[in-house]
Structure formats: C-alpha cells, structure tokens
C-alpha cells in the first residue's frame, strides 16, 4: 500500500453542540484531497479519538470512506491500550472498507517491549489490512525501541510506522534495517524534511490542513534535487507548524481552519478553546490569504 508523502492526521469536525458534524466531515475530506493530501488518518490523536465513542468512530470511518470514494487511502485509527477492543474495532473498520489501520503504542498500561510486540502482532494477525504503527512516547509514556519496530516489520501486513519520538538516530536505524517496502513517516511536521533526508517516506501531518499544497511543493523540490529551495520552504512553513501546537492538539489547528473558512468546530473537553491572546497570536501567523514561499 502506497500512502503517499503527505498524510493528514484529520481533525474530527463537531457542530456547535459538540456532536459529530457529518456534512462538515464530508467537506473537509474534499478540501484535503484538493489541497495536497495523499491519504488521511481518521480518529487518531488529532481526531480527538479519546473522546469519540465506538459508534462515532464507525460513522466517521464510513463517512470518510464514502466521501473519499477511492481517491485517497483512508487509514482508521483503531489502536488503543485494550488489545481485544482494538481487534473488534479493526474488524468493524475492515467491514466498512478502510484501506489500512493505525495502531498506537498502548498508553497508560506502560507495557514492556515484549508486551508491545505481543499487542501489535495479535491485532495484526487478526486483520488483512495494512498496519501503520504509531510510536509517540510523549503521549503513551512508553517508547517503542527500534528493535521492537524492526521485529514487527517482519509481519506481512505491518507496512509502515508513524514515528513521533523525535529520535532521528533510532529512526535511521529502522530505515536502514527494515525489510524492503517498509516505510517510516515523521509524526512531527517540523521534522518532515529531515526525515526525507535520512530516507523517510514523508509525514503524517497536522499542518497539511492549512498548508498541504505548500508541503507537497517542498517535498517535490527535495525529490527533484532542489534541496536549497526545499530547505527555504521548510523554514518559511516552520512558524505555521509551530503555531499549530501552541495549545494541546488539535485546539490550534481547528481554530486556524475556522480562520480560513474550513469548518472544524470546537474541541471536546478536557481540551478547551484558545484564549483571546492565543487567537490573536495564531491569527498573526495563519492569515486567511497568507502568501508562502516568497523570497
């Protein structure tokens, strides 16, 4: 499965009453496809998965699959810290027709490396779908080391990993020793270009909600050998990338989307809206008609 270079970790649009907004979700998928997204991850961290019920996740998967209509791959976030519950949700997502699943390192339980391997391999063996692993020690409290990742990469349907550890040495080890066809994506927008430089496949991005086409242009320049231009574009995009994490994700990106006329709605508790000061700061960086890549 080729998931492309720019995968958007999609927000979950809510209406003013905090309910899943299906029409806004449909419009968001169309917006992302038109603005440089190669694939989407649905109901991940940026999608506020901890606050979504199983019924909401299934409706979200169904809506995105039907709206995308085969134009881009849809990756369902079915991972959790409950192995059996992840298997059940994965099977339901498979019936809906998603193209792959994303499984996060179990959070809160703090499993050993052997426990992480057993968790992921048990879920992978229960589905035919391609599996994206997701290592994010800042949220899970446990880091999946390179050796465990490489061991999992031997499983036939474990095809990629979203690496948000920020450890480029470990990531380089994974890229160097992984079986042919296994890919590594940056889980951090600000490391998208450095990841490409060490052999990464691309980025699972939050900023692509706002600057997807610009990120695609940066990637194309890098692939074409225009490294200096790509580096300049990365530097120009960096303030936007950083501003979207001024508050717990996806608070700022949802606010930025609303500023640009893209319906995203509020965040759910325990997340809270940006303060007036934060709104003003974000507005100064993410302007409705901002012109990128002007030297």
Automatic annotation (TrEMBL):
It is found in: Cytoplasm. Its main location: cytoplasm. GO terms for biological process: diaminopimelate biosynthetic process; lysine biosynthetic process via diaminopimelate. It comes from the Bacteria. Transmembrane segments: none annotated. PANTHER family: 4-HYDROXY-2-OXOGLUTARATE ALDOLASE, MITOCHONDRIAL, DIHYDRODIPICOLINATE SYNTHASE. Homotetramer; dimer of dimers. This is 4-hydroxy-tetrahydrodipicolinate synthase. It comes from Halalkalibacter alkaliphilus. The lineage of its organism: Bacteria, Bacillati, Bacillota, Bacilli, Bacillales.
């Amino acid at each position: 499965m080729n998931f492309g270079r720019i995968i958007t970790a999609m927000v979950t649009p809510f209406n003013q009453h905090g309910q899943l907004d299906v029409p806004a979700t449909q419009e968001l998928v169309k917006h992302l496809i038109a603005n440089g997204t190669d694939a989407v991850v649905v109901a991940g961290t940026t999608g506020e998965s901890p606050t979504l019920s199983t019924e909401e996740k299934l409706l979200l998967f169904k809506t995105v699959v039907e709206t995308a209509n085969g134009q881009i791959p849809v990756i369902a976030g079915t991972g959790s810290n409950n192995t059996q519950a992840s298997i059940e949700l994965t099977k339901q997502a498979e019936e809906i027709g998603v193209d792959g699943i994303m499984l996060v390192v179990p959070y809160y339980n703090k499993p050993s490396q052997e426990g992480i391997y057993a968790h992921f391999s048990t879920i992978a063996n229960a589905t035919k779908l391609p599996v994206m692993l997701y290592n994010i020690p800042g949220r899970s409290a446990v880091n999946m080391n390179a050796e465990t990742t490489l061991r999992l990469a031997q499983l036939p349907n474990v095809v990629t990993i979203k690496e948000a550890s920020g450890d480029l040495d470990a990531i380089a080890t994974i890229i160097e020793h992984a079986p042919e066809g296994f890919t590594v994506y940056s889980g951090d927008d600000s490391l998208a270009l450095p990841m490409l430089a060490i052999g990464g496949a691309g980025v699972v991005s939050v900023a692509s909600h706002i600057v997807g086409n610009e990120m695609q242009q940066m990637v194309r320049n890098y692939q074409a050998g225009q490294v200096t231009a790509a580096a300049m574009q990365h530097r120009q995009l960096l303030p936007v990338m950083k501003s979207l994490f001024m508050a717990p994700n996806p608070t700022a990106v949802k606010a930025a989307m609303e500023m640009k006329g893209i319906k995203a709605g509020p965040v759910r508790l325990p997340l809270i809206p940006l303060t007036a000061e934060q709104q003003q700061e974000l507005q100064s960086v993410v302007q409705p008609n901002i012109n990128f890549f002007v030297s």
